[in-house]
Give the backbone structure.
Amino acid sequence: MISAVGHSADDVYEFEYLNDDGLTSLKSHKSSKKTIDYTDDFAASGAYSRDLPSWAQQSKWSLPDFSADEDVMLDPAAADIHEYSDVLDWCMDVLDASPNARLMMDEAFNKGWKISLEDLQGGEYCLDVEEKTLLLDNNALEPSALTRSRYFRNVTIVTLVKALRDIWQERRHGGFDEYFRPEHIMTLERVRAADCDVMTLLVGWELRSAKHCDIWRHLIGSENGDMAMLYSGHLERDPTSGFNGYALAATFRQWFRDKARVNSCDHDTLEYLDEVLSVGDAADPFGKKKPSRMNIEVLSCLPDKTAYLQGVGGEILSDPLYCGMDDPINQTHLFHILYDLEVVLVNNVPFRDAELARKIFPI
């Protein structure tokens, strides 16, 4: 159950979670890109785990003194690094300069999550919710090679932020398949994916303000560079948009204007729905609910409990920009999933009526 409080039309709602487990129970959720076998001993693979409060510990990487006009980016390439845990230590120290990233890190480690760098063969990251394990892609690089590459260091930090936001959402909302129909799950997963990218840009901007400008330049040159430029443009024209959520909301909308982003998210979601169908015991393992505007807006809650999508949840549920599907392959895939939910297949013969199927093919 959620309560929403706003004091005026210009206020940003504060969403308060009234139960510790969040809105939904956690059963299953789409992994990002890859399925990983966790049968090996996690500690033996060089996993990274920290006891909190970790920020009270003496940092291995310390920020040098700099003047206001200096562009500072910690360079671990000068250090002798041979362990992935040292790479992650550096990432954590950099992210500690971002208030939102720090809150997400604190929650992840307080809830017992572990992080490791592995070769995911092209996948960004993978979450094992049951084991509370996050695997980041090391791009098939050894720790020393990873730290020498400015590009791959930035990729690791950006991916870590995105994964931390996914963990944040996972704890509160879990998998949507238990409560919503497949066509609604598609929209909810789009919103969640867009939010992860928006949060990555927010953290990148905070790091830019903390003199880690190299990460922001990396984001400008990434596939989400259009979102980064739009966000910074909003803040330059109207600095207050960084406080009332307008800049984040505009950046969120920009995510949907790139069909490649939307189609990629839809493809991953459809594969996730196929997995739910294949492992579910029921003929229809999905829920029956239709999302409300509150279900949409709560996905945009920041760690301080303000929602940058306040007031636009209804628009997202009705605007084709957010919920329309133009890709013919994804359309066909979704159609087949919906068709499979409506028919009873007996001896490879589809029936819409289960009783009729039993009469023709008695057990």
Q: What stands out?
A: The beta strands are 2-5, 14-17, 114-118, 125-128, 133-137, 344-346, 349-351. Confidence is low (pLDDT under 50) at residues 1-74.
